[in-house]
Amino acid sequence: xxxTAVNDKKLTEGMLEVGSQFAVQIKAKAFFTFLDSxxxxxxxxxxxxxxxxxxxVIREKAKLKLANSLGFRHISIPPVTLSRMGQIxxxxxxxxxxxxxxxxxxxxxxxxxxxxxxxxxxxxRVGDEWEMFHxxxxxxxxxHIKRVVFEQTLTIALELAAEGREGKPVGAxxxxxxxxxxxxxxxxxxxxxxxxxxEKVRNVLDEGMRDTVKNFAKLDGAFIIxxxxxxxxxxxxxxxxxxxxxxxxxxxxxxxxAAGITATTKSIALTLSESTGTVRIWRRGQVxxxxxxxxxxxxxxxxxxxx
Length: 307
Fold this sequence. Notes:
The protein has helices at residues 3-25, 64-70, 84-97, 147-163, 179-183, 209-216, 253-264, and strands at 30-34, 53-58, 73-76, 106-111, 120-125, 172-176, 186-188, 222-225, 231-238, 268-272, 279-283, 286-291. The protein is an alpha/beta fold. The protein folds into two domains: 3-133, Pyruvate Kinase, Chain: A, domain 1; 147-291, DNA integrity scanning protein, DisA, N-terminal domain (YojJ-like (1, 3-Layer(aba) Sandwich).
């Protein structure tokens, strides 16, 4: 074994031991760690989590069988390159949507670069991070939208942010849920490419539809998606919907439409900024969280990418 691999293993094991002890000491509700970053996962069985739940975060589907065999709860996030805080935000919003967490819960996160060992511990109280959980006193994120539909749509947005289309960055607006009311504010910029197809073949949960959505993301306008995942339209212009409050400087018409439509209807919107690659999730006219595309120079190395 190479010396670097030995050092990475020791670092990860030391971080897990210290992190688990600290989580129990502060009576954290949950301790999150990334299974992909643990070279010998059996070490998790020897750690004490008295009163704190261990939740594994998985990037690769190949790790699902291993996670099940370990016997711990787990969540999956898209296998795209994210900064440390991007990884945490993505995992937190998915855990929150699955009702693993509630406002007021204290959680501990152990994270590292996407292709490296664990090297960073983050402690937070759900609700204190305003940009991540501005949904306090708002309805649950999955009240009328299937959790798996939200997660699949988020995956598509993050993949678009990381890959672009044909080597070029793209912007996108995806609106999920309450489609009947959303459609009242919609006008078509182009002929709707999904019109006339059966609902079965135009659902975002169909893996074959992911590339189709990515290709149509180049069109000007929004995707409108039912809470069960059926795509109603693409290339839609959301008209006469104004944001409930001024947007942060630098956010343009796509973000204004997301703020306006989520304030007017019971929908969730995801925006992808063409200029920065930042994915934002909108609810009731406000940003729930934003996940930044990391700079290539900040994807690796000690403490890189911590926002």
